[in-house]
Amino acid sequence: MRAFVVNHYKGPVQQAEVPEPVVGERDVLVEVQAAGLNVLDEKIRAGESSSRSSRTNCRRSSATTSLER
Looking at the record, which segments are called Disordered (predicted)? Predict the structure, then answer.
């Protein structure tokens, strides 16, 4: 499956193919239809800010759940 990953602190966000997660007995599988990055989270990842109190724009995300086993 496709995922965006950060391999180390201040590392770039990269798209990668990762293995499908294994759903355990007490887990819930969530199908993400859209996702985004919060501008402040990106600045913290890049080492540009350590405060979470700043007002920033946030890109929205949505997900659906599947309870089928």
Answer: 46-69
Tokens 């759940």, residue located? 65
The DSSP string of 2-63 is: EEEE--STTPPPEEEE-PPPPP-TT--EEEEEE---BHHHHHHHTTS---S-S---B---EE
Measure the CA angle with vertex 40, ends 55 and 5; round to 5°.
155
pLDDT band at 67 (very low <50, low <70, confident <90, very high): low
Cβ pair 45, 38 in contact under 8 A: no
Q: Which residue has the tokens 């859209």?
A: 34
Domain boundaries, the chain: 23-69
Residue 57, pLDDT > 70, answer no
